[in-house]
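Record pair follows.
FIRST:
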Amino acid sequence: MTVLRTAITVTEDKAWEAVTAPLLADCLLNRYGGQLQPANRHDDLFHGTDFLWHRKGITARLAIRVRKAAFLKYKDEFTIREDRPQSGQKTELEKIRAGDWAAFYAYAFSDGDSLLHWSLFRMSRFDPDAPFRYMPGFGPRDPCRGHLPCRGYLPCRGHLPCRGHIPDTVTRIYRIPEQPQGFLIKSVTLCAPCNGRAIPQREHTKRNAA
């Protein structure tokens, strides 16, 4: 699971994920039913999968991203990594273009105690060539930021050194309304925290799949 934050550390990421991933999982199960099985490390790293979603006899890959409440004003947008120039690791966009990413993408916003808004996307309808802009500070021409925290993928001594002016990650921002019909399955603003039980919800936007 990838969590976008203004100051990223491995410890903070893990703590944030531990709190917010179950909140989003509960909302999805409350709405659609089924069972969510955490993906193994291989599926997470190489197939962009956070959960296996078992529902109505079908198993689908599910990716999850939770952003902080400060970004709620951008609820009509979502992010996709385009490049990892420092590590050379295969990115979300490359996996999507190769057809090797999750079938569904759940994208949410949280204050750390509850979810404020969530959307569910059907990735087979995602258009990577739709209009986009680069996240400020994470574009291909933006300089890197000194040293990158080690995320455990490479043997290192705590930090990966900055290599000139190459950014550590390049991230695209897409707008949901500019994606094809059927991409957005549902978008919901929550009236109360999901906790696995029926919770009143207000549907912010809904576009049925074509």
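SECOND:
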Amino acid sequence: MKIVIIVVLLAITAYTMGFGISLWKEKQKFGAVAFFFSFACHTCSSVLFYFEILIGKRQT
């Protein structure tokens, strides 16, 4: 099940990065930068939360 979760998260990440790149190519640089910053913040918080669950520091 963990492998499925990781594969799905990687697919979502690839799709999202593609959207940001398409914004950049359409000369919407400010929107692309804001999008990548928001995506990075959400990704970091999600990854940290996931690893807290894996190592057992947080109960769900």
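COMMENT: The helical segments are 2-25, 29-55.
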